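Figure 3 (text version): structure tokens given as input.
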């Protein structure tokens, strides 16, 4: 029988993308979300993962930096680590142990609007402020530098001159929810 491919999801906040991923792969016989990791103990993502019956692991920044989380991940041996709104920098020990096995979703068209501090609403506000006419989402591999790993796929959307950052956030969330699972499937099944 074919081995089930394990995915581990990292979140720091609401985890709406995580919830979609869990639901999508729930009945899947070849791919399963085995664990959800978070640096934020009580975040909604962790609560919802628990409700969905997924094993959760919360940890401090120190525990990621001292190798503890790398050891836990090595034991789990996931096929793919998916950052879905995870806001800490992944430690070098993890990026080197799981080279080309960690992906991130970023709510803009990298290389624009990436780097330290560029997450969530900060990104949408910066895009509106810069009067961009286009934004979108980027799926990319994670390396030792923030938002600099190789790009896997990008999807764009229009930004109207009347759009507020909240309007843009809604457009981006829709793009994310519509495309995330397909990107994961493509990577795992190829
Ligand atoms: C998503 O928009 C994701 O692209 C962004 O955080 C949000 C998480 O939403 N990630 C970053 O900004 C990473 N730099 P969610 O918790 O509802 O899935």
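Below: residues designed for each position.
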């Amino acid at each position: 029988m074919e081995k089930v491919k394990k995915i581990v999801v990292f979140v720091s906040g609401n985890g709406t993308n995580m919830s979609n991923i869990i639901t999508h792969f729930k009945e899947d016989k070849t791919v399963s979300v085995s664990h959800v990791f978070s640096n934020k103990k009580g975040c909604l993502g962790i609560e919802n993962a628990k409700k969905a019956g997924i094993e959760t692991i919360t940890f401090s920044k120190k525990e990621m930096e001292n190798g503890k989380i790398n050891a836990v991940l090595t034991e789990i041996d996931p096929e793919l680590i998916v950052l879905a709104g995870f806001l800490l920098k992944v430690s070098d020990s993890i990026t080197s142990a799981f080279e080309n096995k960690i992906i991130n979703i970023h709510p803009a068209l990298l290389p624009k609007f990436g780097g330290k501090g560029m997450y969530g609403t900060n990104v949408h506000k910066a895009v509106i402020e810069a009067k961009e006419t286009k934004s979108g989402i980027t799926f990319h591999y994670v390396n030792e530098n923030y938002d600099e790993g190789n790009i896997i796929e990008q999807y764009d959307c229009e930004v109207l001159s009347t759009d507020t950052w909240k309007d843009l956030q809604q457009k981006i969330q829709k793009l994310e929810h519509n495309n995330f699972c397909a990107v994961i499937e493509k990577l795992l099944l190829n």
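The helical segments are 16-25, 44-51, 61-65, 68-76, 92-97, 120-129, 165-189.
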